[in-house]
Amino acid sequence: MSNGSDLKEKRAKRLPASRTGKTIAFLGMVIGTAGTGAVIAFLAAFISGLVMRGWNIGFASLGILLLLMILGYLAGVIVGIVLTDKVFHYRGSLLFAIPGSIMGTGLVFVLAADPLNLDPAISILFTCLFLFPPLLGTTGFHLGRKRNS
């Protein structure tokens, strides 16, 4: 009997079902996962900077720090989505959310490679880097949601 009552409690804790509530929940999840990603990216860059303090590799250290910051941001976005799923008991699919976040980061790398000769500015690339992973991850999380309740 406790499993049935636990399920009812989880359903009662869910976010509102109105369209406005869903939009606010979606935007809140995007902002929350971006914030989690920013914190973990900062920690990854700070720790790797401390580790590489004595290295004499020159300009390559900047590239390593940027790559670790990008990977830390991606890991932070994924951690934010998992925390949203586990803490708020929000229905969604982690199997769609995690690849969505990875594809968001990959899309930025494709834009940086410039296959279409768009010549994107670095400010546009960094804006896309901080928008695409949480946006695509949250979209994937909501796409996997079951419609029957």
Characteristics:
149 residues; globular
Kindly summarize this structure in a few lines.
It is built from five helices and no strands.
Average pLDDT figure: 84
Gap between N and C termini? 19 Å
What percent of the residues sit in helical stretches (DSSP H or I)?
Answer: over 70%
Low-confidence stretches: none
Largest sheet: none
Strand content: under 5%
Order of helices and strands: HHHHH
Strand runs, count: 0
What does the radius of gyration come to? 19 Å
Any idea how many domains? 1
Q: How many individual helices?
A: 5
General shape: globular
**Structure class:** mainly alpha
List the helices and strands and how they pair.
Blueprint: H1 2-12, H2 19-51, H3 60-87, H4 94-113, H5 122-143
Helix pairs in contact: 2-3, 2-5, 3-4, 3-5, 4-5
What does this 3D model show about the protein?
This protein has 149 residues and is an all-alpha fold. The chain has one domain (18-143). It has helices at residues 2-12, 19-51, 60-87, 94-113, 122-143. Helix 2 runs antiparallel to helix 3, helix 2 packs across helix 5 (122-143) and helix 4 packs antiparallel against helix 5.
